Model the fold of this input.
Amino acid sequence: MSAARPGILLVLDGWGHAEPGEANALTAADTPCLDRLLGTPLAVLAEASGTAVGLLPGTVGNSEIGHIVIGAGRPVPYDSVLVEERISSGALRSDETLSAALTGAARTGGSLHLIGLSSDGMIHANVHHLRELLHIAALFAVPEVRIHAITDGRDVADGTAATYLETVEGYAAEAGIGTIATVTGRGYALDKSGDLSLTERAARAIADGAGHLIGEPKDALATTGRGEEWVEPSVVTGGDGAPVGPVRDGDVVLFTNFRSDRIQQLADHLHRELAARGVTFLSLAQYDTAAAIPALVHRADAGGGLAARLAEMGLRSVRIAEAEKFEHVTYYLNGREAAVAPVEEHIRISDATPPDYRARPEMSIGQVTEAVTSAARRDDVPLVVANLANIDVVGHTGDHAATVRAAEHTDRAVEALCRVASETGRWVLLVGDHGNAEKMLTESGGVRRPYGGHTTNPVPAVLVPAEGQRVGRPQGAATLADIAPSVLSLLGVGPAPAMTGRALW
Ligand SMILES: O=C(O)[C@@H](CO)OP(=O)(O)O
Ligand SMILES: [Mn+2]
Ligand SMILES: [Mn+2]
Done:
């Protein structure tokens, strides 16, 4: 353990590692500061995807599990793994909550509505889970199942939604039950910025069958000029031209995303309207909704990590991020603990209207940098934790040039913060939470497409020691589980008992 020094933990969101190449926006960018840091012996590559962080093997990393594991100091089984286990073991078929709801629907003639992201991006959902859910609905003789498909274009390449809709229709045909009733882009249905005008468009299509009327589900894909994330809320109509599946009193609604943060806004919006009409609400995994929606699969405990240790030792930390990543440096880093410990201060840099990030790759990084600087200048704050969102958020646009600029803005911010750290006797630990911008192109069937999704690549983790601070070189393989023990060691504190990671420096 090194002598205690205050520090700054900087999460560069979406900062993955890959060899230089046409797809790599990070190596294409002019980033002299980051390049220098990555060239020091104190830089290491850390695993941030798959089983190293509690995901299924070969699954790309994501911000939630990335920040959960950075905070926990150990891999934590993610909701996708827990859902997968309940489905593949067949246990979901005998789930009491689900059985009661479906038995009720079969008895009263109610419909089951399945609402979720229709892709296998494995960040928010897995469309293949519908196969089991439709099979279970058939087992319970539910009279009809309406599928409200949400198109992706963010976790998976654009131009793939038609394939996923076909997959859903194939599972419905195989189960002998299920019709796609609405098709809506995730930009509307999975908004998390609080823009309820977007949520309302999705809710009107799902709840009332009000939206762009279409004959076939795939007809919805022609409604967008800006990628499948923005397919207009569309309603499939039957031969008589009437919508095939609005929610009616006494129906059952089951949300099929295993990740909460983006679907919870729609879930709460629909619950406010429909629960009073005797509609039963369920979610496949546990959600952080205002409404109490029974979950079929419960979360693993992610507590007992960095936040608990800092509170135990009375070490104050200031957490800083833009709105897009604020929950990540607070709620998720704290192990999905909503209570704010007395030794924590949270600063949310809120951007009035989320612009088209391609036009503003700098986002609000200037304000974030200012907030980190003023916290670093305080001597009652041993730890400042911040997330620089640009590389991931702009990376999700799939726009290579904009992402290069986002990386360059990030580089200038890191350079400024390293200078502040040096002036204030602090170390700086930089780490990615998963990859994104190092892969901006994908290829399938010989066709190359822009790709804004995450990767399974390792992420850089690099320490800039405080003036005169003696540290060791990282040895052996590293994962995100090693970050919390490293931060605690640099603060002169031992790891929390539950931590399986180790101090890298
Ligand atoms: O934007 C999101 O919701 C996901 C991608 O779907 O990214 P992240 O895990 O970085 O939040
Ligand atoms: Mn992220
Ligand atoms: Mn992301």
Residues 14, 63, 392, 396, 436, 454 surround manganese (II) ion (ligand 3) (CB under 6 Å).
